[in-house]
Amino acid sequence: MSQASLDDDELFGEMASEMREDVEEALEKARENLPEADDVWETDADNVLGVLNGLRSALDVGDAEDHLRDAKKAFVMGKRADAFEDAEDLEEAIETVEDLVGTIEEAHDQVGDLASTVPELRSTLEDAHADEDEDDE
């Protein structure tokens, strides 16, 4: 073999660094795909249903879940291969993003439920008041 060839330890060290970079890159992409705070907070809607529909749209995690999954796959592979000298920071970052994605998805579902309930409630209230007006006549 020539002097330019690498031994197994060097190759493993190089691959471990690449795996860490893969995890960090995927986590960054996941964070970039999360909704912006202002998009969740601010609205231009004229009524409650518009607010809810806008909020539901703003609470879309987009491709964040896919990037999180990529980060977790690379992390698991690296951890099983014992490629990371210090994996705690990566594991903590993955858990943080995973919790945030879960919270956003839960809020999205709750807003969706409310967005479908509010029009029904409005209709029921209109009917109740119409019945009340008829009884008064």
**Helical proportion?**
over 70%
Mean pLDDT: 90
How many runs of DSSP E, i.e. beta strands? 0
Number of domains: 1
- The number of distinct helices, counting runs of at least 4 residues, comes to 5
Whole-Å distance between the termini? Answer: 103 Å
Given helix and strand content, the structural type is mainly alpha
Q: Ranges with pLDDT <50 over ≥5 residues? A: none
What is the string of helix and strand elements?
Answer: HHHHH
What proportion strand? under 5%
State the major sheet: none
What is the 3D shape?
Answer: rod-shaped
Instruction: Please state the CA-atom Rg, rounded to the nearest Å.
Output: 25 Å
What do these coordinates show?
This protein is mainly α and 137 residues long. It has one domain. It is 78% helix and 0% strand. The chain has five helices and no strands. It has helices at 8-32, 37-41, 48-58, 64-80, 88-136. Helix 1 packs antiparallel against helix 4 and helix 3 (48-58) runs antiparallel to helix 5. It comes from Halorubellus litoreus.
